[in-house]
Design goal:
Blueprint (H helix, E strand, L loop, with lengths): L4 E3 H8 L3 H8 L5 E4 L2 E4 H18 L1 E3 H7 L4 H11 L6 E2 L7 E4 H17 L4 E2 H8 L3 H14 L4 E4 L6 E4 H18 L1 E3 H7 L5 H8 L4 E2 L3 E3 L1 H16 L4 E2 H4 L6 H18 L19 E4 L3 E4 H10 L1 H18 L5 H4 L9 H10 L5 H24 L16 H31 L5 H31 L3 H8 L3 H5 L6 H14 L4 H12 L4 H9 L10 H21 L7 H16 L12 H14 L3 H20 L5 H19 L2
Antiparallel strand pairs: 1-3, 2-3, 4-6, 5-6, 7-9, 8-9, 10-12, 11-12, 13-15, 14-15
Helix pairs in contact: 1-2, 6-8, 12-14, 16-19, 16-20, 18-19, 20-21, 21-24, 21-25, 27-28, 27-31, 28-29, 28-30, 28-31, 29-30, 30-31
């Protein structure tokens, strides 16, 4: 009664009795409460219950285990007493999942409202771990309350994950992000799965797109809308109607992988094939219904028609006749005893895909990739035509415009003259426009170096080709051309293989024939001096060849568009490797210049990449494109480090440079 509590062992010592006697005596005393080896008075029990009640009222909650340890009471006994004497009051609460905690109703309601308020105000995904730390609510209790709110389904949002890993996703956030994703999709006609995940990471991107856009086309790395498919259908229809060809991989958006472009083309062709199937009404077929002119897909990339291929074969008559003549002339030297009719059966008379490809590129102006692809298809019909030409090679197929039939050798000379005129016109434009573009640079030493490049490279090349044209105009046969130029027939047909030194030797040789032409000699001396292109520019103005086109503003704009398209095609064909790094940066720096200065054709070698980047950097920064400027400078530093000290090339950085160049080309093509 004095202390409110005692142990049976203590009482036995005080009274000098056995513990069994004490226990027997306690059983007869009703005002004491015995728990295990402890004895309490009712007043003592009521006292510590009131202490716990006061603590709950002050702090909002209390741990039964902590209290049992602080007053040295059995945990189970304290829980039972509190359940009977404290929790019978509605002002106090205990969760069945947290039996150790007792809460005041006021604290419970306040905590629930605090959590609920924070979640209702959220407009972005909210981490429950961070929210618990910011609200300073006891950790197990916080997550039990959150679970309760989730089960009640009263919040406008969803919980993803459990406990400290849980994230609350507000409905307003989901709706906003989904709306953004589909606005991007509808604006571009396609969207990358990476973009979808970046804007909404809580759902599989293909499931999200399919759920909200049932007609969407799911590809390997992105998705395309019905509008994009219809645009490709229209482009294919235009290709078919105009008897030309289409590179679907180049037409597809620049972010499309080869697999994406192939998937888009296959899907579109399947639709077109369905439209042109025998079960489809004739009225809906359009021009694609022509049974004699079918659509053809090559390498899952190129689209053309049978009519276009037939036109290529027809246009190859001169090439085949010339090739046949060359074959017969060669055989005259080695097989003079064979009759002409037996020559077509000679195993040595073959038309290779490489020859056909070379012809398609140089004579028909086809891009290398398409020419390589279509040469496989054309090999058999062109070989048949070649065999026929062997038998009839001396039957002329064209005339010189005056009614006189031309021999195959004369046809070859005329064809080469036309090509030289086209090449000279292009070089003329390049020299003039590049010289104009040089004035944009405000670097005295840089300008001088650029002007030397124009003179020593471009002007020298123009002079060489102009002298070749004059030689062709005065020649009677192929042997005469070879002798005058000092270059073989094969090298004349493929001028890119002629080195600069070889060009200089050929120029010297041809000038000896045209020794009376003072202007050409002056141009030669100016090219060798390599200081300024003024003499060439003056010559172009005062004595332009009759095949030159006036350099009007429209001609300049078209030259600029052709240059942008050409740079774009070159960039697309560059693979990512250490060896192609300088080329990718060179092409991208030229594209950057055209992006900044519209309608300003500019063509220089990779030697001037540092000058271009140094000049373009402040221009990009002025356009709020500091990141793009830094990208070019970082890539240049990386490539220089690789060249000088063989440091590794960062292919990821190189990929970013290529992608940036492709983006600029795409924007320029939309102008």
């Amino acid at each position: 009664m004095k202390h409110g509590r005692a142990s049976i062992a203590e009482l036995a010592d005080l009274l000098n009795l056995e513990q069994s006697c004490i226990i027997q005596a306690l059983n007869d005393i009703n005002e004491f409460i015995k728990v295990d080896d402890l004895v309490f008075t009712s007043k003592y029990i009521d006292g510590f219950i009131n202490q716990i009640k006061d603590r709950v009222d002050q702090t909002g909650w209390v741990s039964v285990l902590a209290q049992a340890q602080s007053i040295s009471l059995p945990y189970a006994f304290l829980q039972t007493i509190l359940d009977e004497k404290l929790l019978c009051n509605e002002d106090y609460i205990k969760y069945s999942t947290l039996p150790d905690l007792i809460l005041s109703e006021e604290y419970y309601n306040k905590s629930i409202e605090t959590i609920k308020g924070a979640l209702e105000e959220a407009s972005e995904p909210l981490s429950m771990f961070k929210l618990q730390k910011s609200l300073v609510i006891q950790e197990p209790l916080f997550y039990v309350m959150v679970d309760g709110l989730a089960k009640e389904n009263v919040l406008k949002g969803h919980f993803r994950g459990r406990r400290e890993r849980a994230v609350f996703e507000p409905t307003v956030y989901r709706d906003r992000q989904v709306e953004l994703i589909f606005s991007l999709l509808e604006a571009a006609g396609y969207i990358e799965y990476e973009t979808v995940v970046r804007h909404y990471p809580y759902m599989n991107p293909t499931d999200l797109l399919k759920k909200n856009y049932p007609n969407i086309l799911l590809l390997d790395g992105c998705a395309a809308t019905e509008d994009l498919v219809k645009k490709l259908e229209a482009k294919i229809q235009e290709t078919y109607d105009t008897s030309t060809w289409l590179d679907a991989s180049a037409w597809a958006p620049f972010v499309f992988t080869p697999a994406d472009a192939t998937g888009l083309l296959e899907h579109t062709m399947t639709r077109l094939t369905h439209l042109t199937s025998p079960t489809t009404s004739r009225r809906s077929l359009g021009s694609l219904a022509d049974p004699e002119n079918r659509l053809i897909v090559l390498e899952s990339r190129f689209v053309t028609s049978t009519r276009y291929l037939e036109e290529l074969i027809k246009s190859s008559t001169d090439f085949l006749n010339k090739r046949a003549l060359s074959e017969i002339q060669q055989q005259k030297k080695t097989h003079s005893s064979k009759g002409k009719k037996h020559r077509a059966d000679d195993k040595g008379l073959v038309l290779t895909e490489q020859e056909i490809c070379k012809y398609l590129i140089e004579e028909c102006g086809l891009e290398k990739s398409f020419a390589r692809s279509v040469s496989t298809t054309l090999r058999r019909p062109m070989t048949d035509a070649f065999q026929r030409a062997i038998q009839t090679v001396y039957l002329p197929s064209s005339n010189n415009g005056s009614g006189t039939l031309l021999s195959p050798e004369s046809q070859w000379i005329e064809a080469l003259k036309k090509r030289q005129q086209t090449l000279l016109s292009t070089l003329h434009q390049t020299i003039v426009y590049t010289t104009q573009a040089i004035q944009i640079f405000k670097d005295e030493s840089g300008n001088k170096s650029l002007e030397k490049y124009v003179v020593r490279v471009l002007c020298l090349e123009w002079l060489y080709n102009f002298l070749v044209l004059q030689t062709l105009s005065e020649a009677y046969d192929i042997a005469g051309v070879e002798d005058a130029v000092g270059v073989s027939e094969k090298d004349l047909e493929n001028q890119k293989k002629i080195s600069e030194d070889h060009q200089k030797m050929a120029i010297q040789r041809m000038l000896e024939v045209h020794s009376s032409d003072v202007q050409l000699k002056d141009l030669h001396q100016a090219a060798l001096a390599g200081k300024k292109p003024d003499l060439f520019l003056s010559y172009f103005e005062s004595s332009p060849p009759n095949f030159f086109k006036p350099l009007t503003e429209n001609v300049k704009k078209q030259a600029w568009k052709d240059m942008v398209n050409s740079l774009g095609r070159l960039l697309n064909t560059c693979s990512l490797s250490e060896s192609t790094g300088p080329s990718i940066l060179h092409i991208t720096s030229l594209i950057c210049f055209e992006y900044i200065y519209h309608n300003t054709p500019f063509s220089v070698s990779g030697k001037y990449v540092p000058l271009i980047i140094r000049h373009c950097t402040p221009q990009l920064e002025a356009k709020d494109q500091s990141k793009e400027a830094k990208l070019l400078n970082d890539a240049h530093a990386m490539i220089m480090a690789h060249v000088k000290s063989k440091q590794p090339v960062d292919l990821d950085l190189l990929a970013k440079v290529k992608k940036q160049g492709q983006q600029w080309v795409s924007k320029l093509q939309d102008i």
